[in-house]
Amino acid sequence: MGGPLTDQQGSTLRQFRLRARLTQEALAEASGVSVRTIRGLESGARRNPQRSSLQQLADAMGLSPGDRELLMAAVLGTPAAPGPRQLPAPPTLFAGRRPDVAELTEMLDQTSTVVISGTGGVGKTWLALHWANQESDRFPDGQLYVNLRGFDPSGRPMNVEAALRGFLEGIGVPPSEQPTDLHAQSALYRSLLADRRMLVLIDNAVDSAQVVPLLPGSGSTVIVTSRNQLTGLVTSRGARRLTLDALPDEDSTALLAARLGADRLAAEPDAAAQLVRSCAGMPLALGIVAGRAQAHPEFPLAELADELREMRLNALDEDDELASVRAVLSWSTTPLKPPMSRLFTLLGIVPGPDIGVQAAAALNGQSVMDTRRLLRALEQVSLVQHHVPGRYRMHDLVRLYAAEQTLPQAEREAALHGLVTYYTAGARAVNQSLFPHRAPSVVVHDAAVSHEFVPSDADAAWAWFHAENACLVASARLAMTMGWYAPVWEQAYCLAPMRTRQGYLHDDHETWRMALAAAEHLGDTVARGLALCGLGFADHHLNDNENAALHQQEAVDLLATTDRTMEQAIAHSALSNALRPLDRVQEGLRHARRSLELLEPLGHPVLTAQALSQVGEHQLDLGDYAVGRATLERALAVFREHGDTDSAAITLSNIARSLRREGEFAAALPLYHEVLALYTAVGNLANIGAVHASIGDIQLAQGDRDGAAQSWRTALEVHIAHHQLSLAEETERKLAKLTPRVPPSVTPNV
Fold it and tell me: In this structure, are residues 399 and 348 in contact, taking their beta carbons and an 8 Å threshold?
């Protein structure tokens, strides 16, 4: 016979005794086995247990034949019957999710419970079953599985007592011997699983309350899947959460290839890519598409891709509810309360890739606090994702479904108008914060603002701009289609300096084109002229200098028909700027002087100094360095007096340029470094590349080839990032000349 019982062997007897609702004393009295023996068996201290004693204990506890076998096997060390194996079959064509599989493994190495959450159809159960079957060796005592039907076509989640009864029966407790009380059932369940190495997979839970009674005690591992984030399990039970996002395109393609064959995808790569994009990384959608393609192997994938692109959710509907994206998503939205349902619908129609909390409040027409609460509630059921602090997004197919939901058209339009108004007011606020000396917009969208972003400082203004730029472009497109022309124009004007300085050049060009069309709809000649100026600047930044000059000349001619002196001055200045890269410097100087003449009587010192600085630039271009520097120094003094750091940096850069051209390298170099600091401070990143290139020129002239190479490499990176192609090509030529070609090595005769 063996030695002392192990903890697991002793616990088996203790579990059966507790299930029989007997104390050690009561069991001793019923069986005739001494209390001392029972205590020794349960503690593991009793040596050489007798089979007859165990039989007496089994009789006294009323054990079934199966449980009697388990007790004998545990205490006497004989082979036990296999534990439950309730897991469904694993997915046969699992693809991708390597980072998620690795993260799940790491989590379960550190904790006993993990919640896998995500929107319907994203593959939560798919991942859980794949991992469980792959890691089955971890659980020698078996696996329990239950589908709690939390989000189910029936709308009726499984009763917790029913789930517990299934678990108890799975581990060998006949229905007739199970307690009827939920708490007693749960206690017995925990007792029987204590110290066992089992996996409990709880699938499709509706909330934490449905899961808590199913959690075992120590020893076992639990995986819970749910569209709900089950925050209660995380905060009070120490569970970890793994949130599933859409599959990346590479994994989506691999999944289609596993179902359809790599050759079929390779034969139609464009159609395959379109199918992947349309399914937006949702495994359910990919499975539906693959099933349809398998059903018609003779059909080209392009036909299916066209159908999916045109019909979207309608093309992802089958008669079977489990194979319908729309049906699966509906199980998440049916329980939503009206405020949540309304916001969910509105989020489906917003422009832009995501939305900030304050913008969502403007859309929703409620307070920021209430809107934040609703967003968190939608996040809890995986209908939105809180992907970065303060911002939410939707899965593409969830967004399409949200947009289908019923809401009166007038209510939709009012909500969108509130959102466009918020974005426009924010653009106005950041423009005034970052460029206080700039002329005011001639078109103002003066609708009432329910929520307004007010930047606390320059950093906050830049942060808002970067976070919202994509949404601002999308809101301008929306406003244009809705016939709200004033916000289209004002956004283009207010955001242009930020976009050009930060490299959003194509966005700037697109919004100025829309602003020009908006001005034509408004019948506003001044707005049209300034839009032509803006479009000309955008052309120039995209290296289209011929069109830039044409648009600026058209602006000068158009504004000459008005009595708006300041706007005429702006147009002449813009045309002057457009003529410089066309080597029409003398003509450009005339327009710069005309701009200065128009501005001087108006009493705007900073704007006047900007025109003066432009005159100085042209003087330098004509080789009149002394006169040009004197002109620039006068303008620089005004900029410094009024705190116009951006204009000061541009002017100082031109002074340094003139010194460099005259060979005054020692005087120019510190000025360029000062310019770098100023440009960085004001966020004028687009001009930094030219400064680094100039510093490299000076370093080469001073014999510092390594320093020149490093400066030019930095300049090249900036030029490429900001689409400054001609400057990038020029810098590449400099680097090529700097690096001598090494002749082929000659191997000497040996």
Answer: yes
Say which residue the tokens 């699983």 belong to.
193
For residues 97 and 80, give the distance between their C-alpha atoms in angstroms, rounded to a whole number: 37
What is Dmax (Cα atoms) for the chain? Answer: 118
Structure tokens at 151: 């989000």
Pairing label, strands 355-356, 391-393: antiparallel
> In the numeric block, which tokens belong to residue 356?
């900030």
Pairing state between β 113-117 and 143-147? unpaired
The token pair that represents 579 in the structure block:
């003529």
Distance CA 270, CA 266 (A): 9
pLDDT in tens, 1-53: 333 334 455 667 888 888 888 888 888 888 888 888 888 888 776 656 677 78
Output the six-digit token pair for 705.
Answer: 């080839």
- Contact between 72 and 54 (Cβ < 8 Å): yes
Q: How far apart are CA 428 and CA 363, in angstroms?
A: 18
Burial class (CB in 10 A: 0-12, 13-18, 19+), 378: buried
The C-alpha atoms of residue 89 and residue 132 are separated, in whole angstroms, by: 10
343-364 pLDDT, tens digit per residue, is: 999 999 999 999 999 999 999 9
User: Which residues touch 623 (CB under 8 Å, ≥6 apart)?
Assistant: none
Total residue count of the chain as it appears in this document: 750
Find where tokens 């398998």 sit. Answer: 294
Could you tell me which residues are beta bridge partners of residue 199?
A: 143, 221
Helix, strand and coil in the chain, % to nearest 5: 65, 5, 30
| Backbone dihedral angles phi then psi of residue 35, each to the nearest 5 degrees | -60, -40
Give 527-578 pLDDT, tens digit per residue.
999 999 999 999 998 889 999 999 999 999 999 999 999 999 999 999 999 9
Please say whether the beta carbons of 426 and 468 come within 8 A.
yes
Rounded CA-CA distance 204/126 in Å is 12
* Residue that has been written with the tokens 């426009």 in this structure: 424
pLDDT beyond 80 at 318: no
DSSP string, 178-245: S-SSHHHHHHHHHHHHTT---EEEEES--SHHHHGGG---TT-EEEEEESS--HHHHHHH--EEEE--
What lies within 8 Å, CB to CB, of 286 at 6+ separation is 247, 252, 255, 256, 276, 279
- Contact criterion met (CB below 8 Å) for 383 and 398: yes
Residue with tokens 């031109």: 654
Exposed/middle/buried for residue 127 (C-beta within 10 Å: 0-12, 13-18, 19+): buried
Q: Do 236 and 113 touch, CB atoms closer than 8 A?
A: no
DSSP state letter for 203: E
The sign of the CA dihedral 541, 545, 551, 552 is: positive
Give Cβ neighbours of residue 200 (< 8 Å, ≥ 6 apart): 143, 144, 145, 167, 193, 214, 215, 216, 220, 221, 222, 223
